[in-house]
Amino acid sequence: xxxxxxxxxxxxxxxxxxxxxxxxxxxxxxxxxxxxxxxxxxxxxxxxxxxxxxxxxxxxxxxxxxxxxxxxxxxxxxxxxxxxxxxxxxxxxxxxxxxxxxxxxxxxxxxxxxxxxxxxxxxxxxxxxxxxxxxxxxxxxxxxxxxxxxxxxxxxxxxxxxxxxxxxxxxxxxxxxxxxxxxxxxxxxxxxxxxxxxxxxxxxxxxxxxxxxxxxxxxxxxxxxxxxxxxxxxxxxxxxxxxxxxxxxxxxxxxxxxxxxxxxxxxxxxxxxxxxxxxxxxxxxxxxxxxxxxxxxxxxxxxxxxxxxxxxxxxxxxxxxxxxxxxxxxxxxxxxxxxxxxxxxxxxxxxxxxxxx
Length: 357
Description:
Elements: E1 15-16, E2 22-23, E3 40-44, H1 53-60, E4 67-71, E5 77-84, E6 100-104, H2 106-120, H3 122-133, E7 141-145, H4 153-163, E8 176-180, E9 186-193, H5 197-206, E10 208-213, E11 224-230, E12 251-254, H6 263-272, E13 279-282, E14 291-294, H7 298-314, E15 324-325
């Protein structure tokens, strides 16, 4: 991942957004506080035992028909909820002291509602990306990093359109999939499925340290972030892959080979390059030239990554053309788990250790 820097840009004159609101210059911001634009309240760190809007209404005093809870696909509450509340709306004194309350304007309220939908559909979105992009060599998916946390799908689509001078447009907003952190917080990374591989190349070429406002509807009044595009994430799905990796972490995925090769032929090719996996699995559901290679320890796994990287340079494969990757199964949360496996520190991969070249 490329490093990111941040800097503050000069403030423009006036920025506007949909509706009758006008956002003044930064030097006048103290005359236009957020609470005067308040349309809702965001509650965070609510008890995880809450399961309905009625539970939140009990401690806040806000009618339950004005409350939206953020939940995962299996119905787990993240501890975050939004309630429609004007400036004069009174709050109950029974709110626990650890619960944080923040005012939201119209834009932030719409963002939270969209995040609730995307968080719930995250698993289906990843599976859809894998099905639609896996058959053409994974060349249509672009990973964007450095996206401000206030951005919606439409804002990301606007970035791509502006950076490529309207040459590339996202076909559907649902083709933009944000990652999420623990407890439902939106990450600064998103995955974009583009209409063609050429469109993906154009985005990667133009979106490199591309400056975007922290809050798009307010212009640069809140500073800016720098966005980068690459192909750092690939997705593939197939029923035969559910347990293909087993419990081993010592796997390497390599792709771009002849689709007619089978496991035994691939082993012969690898042995000629002094690469000796103890198991080879041809990946179903892709373009046909993808293989999983398993090794007996992490040291050998890292050495193979280095060797494949040298081969990529020797064969003059483009820097943004995927040739190898580290395969991991998507996080799985089973209903009834007290603690999910992906949240336990003892399950972290040692791939983060220094690589021996």
